[in-house]
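Good morning C.,

I know you're traveling, so I'll keep this short. The sequence:
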Amino acid sequence: MEFKFYKLDEESEKLNLLKLIKKYGTVTRGQIVTLTGYSSAKIGLLIKEMEEQNLLEEIGDDESTGGRKAKLLQLRGNKGYFLGIELGGYEQKISIIDFSGKMLAYDKIPEISDHNELGMVIDTLVEFIHKFINLNSKYTSGILGIGLAVSGVVDNETGVCRYYRNKKSWEGIELKSILEKEFSMPCVIDDSSRMMAVAEKVYGSCHEIDNFILVSIGVGIGAGIYINGRLFRGSGGLAGEIGHMVIKENGPRCVCGNYGCLESLASGYAIERQLQEALKDNVYSSIKQGASTAKEVVDQAKLGDKLAYSIINNAAKHLGVGIANVINIFNPEVVILSGGISKAGELLTEPIEQVVKSSALEFSAKNCKIIISQLNEYAAALGVANVCIDKILETNLILKT
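The tokens, ready to paste straight into the viewer:
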């Protein structure tokens, strides 16, 4: 993989070098020389200057291939801190990472998803961010930016929310402007599924993979798409809404208003709907009326409940159709499943693989692995905090602090 410095002014050289080291996590001076095409002397001078600016640090020795061990370099964590927040369908989470990408603290935001009034949601969110900042003051005095991942349709350029499940009042709300005004620092807004994909690229199973698709299966269904090592956003920044791919003509009505969308058949809310319908028809289950969360269905399916198993199996087959279509279009190396429903594990992957094998092009299906994400539930928050670091680098703010 190549990385070339195209701008030769000193400031751009340093920013490009920071981006390179962030991309690879840890690198040696020799690897930087190979990646950039610069001389050892030039790289040595740049690194010395950046160490003096508190931007880089040595963290140990690289694996020896004989001779003197090379020193590993990484971004210096205490150069700045970044908040990452996820407004998810089921839960809302907040984390803080340092400049090197290490997560330092995290928490869940209580009692926000049940609010119907947008003003109450924003007030609760802002209040909790302030509380979190105060509780983590040893880091938060150096916060340089805030990232917000939203389980809805958002314009990442303007920070405007275009759609949020069943809540018309969210349409057109300028989330970016609200947070920047409240906290007086840069803010980035993006889609939760795309931010999970970013976390997978930075921290997870796809760190060395350039072509992959993350499918998030929670209350809704979305995707983050990586093509040639870059997050694909589409012409309007909204790529990845595979939950609204119609896969069953005259199927159930989706929250988007259409019929037969993948989300209406295999998402968390679809699983809960199917459970309620079955219980009303007196289908036997260890799950009782009222205990109707998708998580409960997943848990009981793994314990052998026949109704729960049937619902998860049916959802997996629909997911298989959608994923087969995605594989045919993008030919990824990996499809990685994330989100709450992915906790079903093999109960999900086995039916998906069977459908993909029978529905996708043979070569594409054979060369694509379908796996479950091993990242924790803070993946979207981590991803958007990393995007915030990228934004700060682009604006050159990191060299001015």
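Safe travels,
E.
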